[in-house]
From TrEMBL:
Residues 40-233 form the Outer membrane lipoprotein BamD-like domain. It is a lipid-anchor. Part of the outer membrane protein assembly complex, which is involved in assembly and insertion of beta-barrel proteins into the outer membrane. Part of the Bam complex. The gene is bamD. CDD domains: BamD (cd15830). TPR repeats lie at residues 41-74. This is Outer membrane protein assembly factor BamD. It is found in: Cell outer membrane.
Length: 306
């Protein structure tokens, strides 16, 4: 005999059935991994490299992981860890890529390819650098990781690329200081602004922001009536960047206040400051794992010798 359920019990049972149904659907939607099938290690690895070359990052990860699963103690397995990390990096899965790099370093700390693992971690942090108006935690991480590469492997190709990226990271950090300084200056907090502009000159003087920092100091000191300081910073700006637009502005500003600078600005069209550059994060410049050659697409052109 069937029992009569109350309305409340019926609702509860319906809710359970819906939950089970949703869970079942969620389980079905999960991306299946490669079915286990014993295959030659060279075939698995080359297929992963082919998927990478085609830009199929997730499929590449599956094949390289399969190399590790079927041939865990082989040289191919060791290389596959880095290839997995590189595929994760190309697919913008930076946390996974960093995890792969850390795993390689933990398992093979003395292996020559550990240099690439450190490099891969650094470029993953570098790729996550955000706009100067937002928190710069990733920028600081990137700077520390890039410096680590240079310190550990100073004569490597990874260090060469890391040094270029360090310059761009410093440019980013200087940009952050400038943005805060401008805000303070605009809102009448002149002393706070001066502190920010001085920080640029002390910590990031080789960046593209140096000319503006000097100009802003001229502007700030004139606001405070400190004429000697304004003239001194204007002289430094004119001596080092006579053809920069910021010196042309400083020159006019100093003249308007009766402080005629000794150095006149170069004529319009003169060579601009060589430090003026933009922050570029083109993955086409990122080095591929050891022994692999990158294609024009950013993938890999086959598998080279071990």
């Amino acid at each position: 005999m069937l029992r009569n359920f109350s309305g409340r019990s019926a609702v509860t049972i319906a809710a359970v059935l819906v939950a089970v149904s949703v869970a079942g659907c969620a389980g079905k939607s999960k991306k299946p991994s490669l079915a286990y099938e014993e295959r030659p290690v060279e075939l698995l690895y080359s297929t992963g490299a082919d998927r990478l070359d085609r830009g199929n990052w997730n499929e590449a990860v599956d094949y390289f992981r399969e190399v590790e699963r079927q041939h865990p103690y082989s040289e191919w397995s060791r290389r596959s860890i880095l290839m997995t990390g590189y595929a994760h990096y190309m697919g913008n899965n930076y946390n996974d890529a960093i995890g792969d790099a850390d795993r390689f370093i933990s398992l093979y700390p003395g292996n020559p390819s550990a240099s690439y693992a450190y490099y891969l971690k650094a470029v993953c942090y570098f790729e996550q650098i955000v706009d100067v108006n937002r928190d710069q935690a990733a920028t600081e991480q990137a700077l520390a990781a890039l410096r680590d590469v240079v310190q550990r492997y100073p004569n490597s190709e990874y260090a060469t690329d890391a040094r270029l990226k360090i310059d761009m990271v410093n440019d980013q950090l200087a940009g952050k200081e400038m943005a805060i300084g401008r805000y303070y200056l605009k809102n009448g907090q002149t002393l706070a602004a001066i502190g920010r502009f001085k920080a640029v000159l002390e910590r990031h003087q080789t960046t593209s922001h140096t000319p503006e920092a000097l100009y802003r100091l001229v502007e700030a000191y004139l606001t405070l009536g400190l004429m000697d300081e304004a003239k001194r910073n204007g002289a430094v700006l004119g001596y080092n960047f006579p053809g920069d637009r910021w010196y042309a502005d400083a020159y006019r500003l100093l003249n308007d206040n009766g402080l005629r600078p000794a150095v006149e600005p170069l004529k319009a069209g003169a060579k601009r400051n060589a430090l003026e550059r933009i922050l570029s994060k083109d993955k086409g410049t990122t080095l591929a794992p050891p022994g692999e050659k990158k294609s024009k697409k950013g993938g890999l052109m086959g598998v080279l010798g071990m």
